[in-house]
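Task: sequence design from structure.
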C-alpha cells in the first residue's frame, strides 16, 4: 500500500493499488474497444447485408444520381433490370460489386464506358477477352467471399458459358474486373482498392484433380 502526503495538511492518504486497478481497468478496456472500433470502421452490430442495394438504389450508385432523371428511356441504365450492388470497404479502401441485365451487348459496352472508379483503364470492346474466369477467388466467389450471407444469384459469374471479360490488377492493392454474359446480356463489374485478398481461383474440375 502506498502512502501519499496531503499538501494542505491532514492525515496521509493511503492508496491501495488493487483498488486503483479495479477502478481503472474498465476505463482502459472501454477506451481500447473504442479505438479498435474506430480503426476497423465497422460497428459492433454490423450486418453484412446492410451495404447491399437493389434496382433503383443500385442504379443511383453506379450512375450520377442527379443525371438519372435526365436520361432518355432508351438509355442502358433506364432499361437495366435485376440490378445489384454490394458497396463494402471502409475509409481505407473500396469493395464494389455491381451487376445488371441490359437490353443488348452494346448496352453492356456502354455501361463499361460509364465506369466511375477503376484500376488501370477501361477496356475497349476490342480488348475484351473470350470468357475464361478471373484469376482471383474474390471475383469468382462474389461478395460471398467476405461473408456467406452475401451469396446471391444476382452476382454469379461462374454461370457464364459464353461471354467476355477483362481484368486489371495492380499487385494486391487495386483491381478491376468487367464481364459480360453474352447469352443473358448481364453485365458485371467488380472493383477493389486499399488491398484485396489475392487467393487464386481454381475451377471445380481442376480442384478435384489436385486432391
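Answer:
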Amino acid at each position: 500500500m502506498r502512502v501519499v502526503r496531503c499538501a494542505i495538511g491532514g492525515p496521509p492518504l493511503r492508496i491501495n493499488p488493487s483498488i486503483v486497478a479495479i477502478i481503472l481497468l474498465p476505463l482502459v478496456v472501454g477506451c481500447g474497444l473504442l479505438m479498435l472500433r474506430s480503426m476497423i470502421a465497422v460497428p459492433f452490430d454490423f450486418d453484412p447485408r446492410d451495404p447491399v442495394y437493389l434496382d433503383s438504389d443500385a442504379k443511383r450508385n453506379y450512375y450520377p444520381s442527379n443525371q438519372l432523371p435526365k436520361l432518355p428511356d432508351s438509355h442502358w441504365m433506364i432499361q437495366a433490370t435485376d440490378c445489384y450492388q454490394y458497396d463494402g470497404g471502409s475509409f481505407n479502401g473500396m469493395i464494389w460489386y455491381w451487376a445488371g441485365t441490359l437490353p443488348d451487348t452494346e448496352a453492356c459496352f456502354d455501361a463499361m464506358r460509364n465506369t466511375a472508379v477503376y484500376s488501370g483503364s477501361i477496356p475497349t470492346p476490342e480488348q475484351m477477352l473470350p470468357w475464361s474466369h478471373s484469376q482471383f477467388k474474390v471475383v469468382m466467389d462474389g461478395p460471398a467471399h467476405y461473408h456467406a450471407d452475401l451469396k446471391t444469384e444476382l452476382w454469379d459469374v461462374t454461370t457464364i458459358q459464353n461471354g467476355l471479360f477483362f481484368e486489371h490488377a495492380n499487385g494486391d492493392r487495386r483491381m478491376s474486373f468487367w464481364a459480360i454474359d453474352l447469352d443473358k446480356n448481364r453485365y458485371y463489374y467488380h472493383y477493389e482498392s486499399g488491398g484485396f485478398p489475392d487467393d487464386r481461383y481454381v475451377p471445380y474440375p481442376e480442384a478435384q484433380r489436385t486432391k
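The first strand starts at residue 2 and ends at 4.
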